[in-house]
Amino acid sequence: MSLEQEIPIKQKCLQWIKVGDKPFQFTDSALVTQPKDLEQNDVLIQVYSAGVNPIDGKMAAENIAQVKLPAVVGYDVSGTIVGIGSSVKDFKIGDDVLGCLTFKRGGGFQQYCVTDESVLIKKSPGVSHEQAASLGVAYLSALDGLQHVRNQIQGKSVFVPGGSGAGHFIVQICKILGASPLIASASKEEGIKLLKETYHCDHVINHAKEDVVAKIQEITVGQGAHIVFDSTYISSSFEKSIRSTANGGSWIVLGKFVQEGSVEEQMCQQQNVKLIHADLGKYSAKSEFEAKRSEFFRQGLKEACEWILQGKLKPYINQQPTIEELETAIEKLRKGQSGFGKVVAKIH
């Protein structure tokens, strides 16, 4: 019996059935796309692990990519290819892969997902499925912001507030690239300990107990940090992190925040700070970035896996819900209750 014939007809899946409140419905009888029905550049993946990100809940609540429902969210996947389209060149059945699915397509929160081969890379045996699925949105969002200042990081002061999934990757990338001093902040003992002992930050500020701006000024001898990357999604953090940025420095913000004419933009102008937006959504929404998507996604994920194999990049996975527990995990993440690092679901 061939591998293709062994693929089940039905699967477990967290379906996205409507926009707004209570958008999800778990089912164990969703149909599985069969290999014979794949588009020519598509692959069918048996998903083992899938990363959970804030965009999962935001997409379901607002449908910012204008996806036709019912659908499936989930954008970070790791698994094994069990079917390929007629024009697929880079992969074969049996390959272990990881990738970041586009926001228009998604599909990670089901046992078998279909995606275009262009957003995938082969997974090394030395990288676990859990580690691989932790990357995707969080790591590539970090990279999207840092690509604008990458050549400036060596020997320069960098401040990364908070310990989100993206934030803990930003810290590690900046450490690898030679930031000095590397400053981070957290409010809970778990995060503070990890930032100090695992990620070797030069300074870790407890933002619940210390004056962040004053502490940054003290560490940088009154200059402020040359590069600040705020991935917290919190406006009160934005105000403090901009004030912590050096005159002539760069302030990077993750997500669709700080629009033209905003208070934060005015603060950046007043302090002579360069404002940089990190937003992975543009690679699914804007044609000029869609053309660059495959190269950016693939190169970024390959670099991350190489660093994992070298022991330089250490994803911290604090929760591993089952597919049945995914809806609760997404809600906890939305409420900021998921803790430091990444949440990665067990799908198979």
TrEMBL record:
Q: Can you give the residue ranges of the Enoyl reductase (ER) domain?
A: 20-345
Molecular function terms, GO-annotated: oxidoreductase activity
Q: Which domain of life is it from?
A: Eukaryota
Q: Which SUPFAM superfamilies match?
A: GroES-like, NAD(P)-binding Rossmann-fold domains
Q: Which InterPro entries match?
A: ADH-like_C, ADH-like_N, ER, GroES-like_sf, Lipid_raft_assoc_Zn_ADH, NAD(P)-bd_dom_sf
Looking up CDD domains in the UniProt record yields:
MDR1
An example of a Pfam family matching this protein is: ADH_N
Stored Gene3D superfamilies: Medium-chain alcohol dehydrogenases, catalytic domain, NAD(P)-binding Rossmann-like Domain
According to UniProt, the name of this protein is Enoyl reductase (ER) domain-containing protein
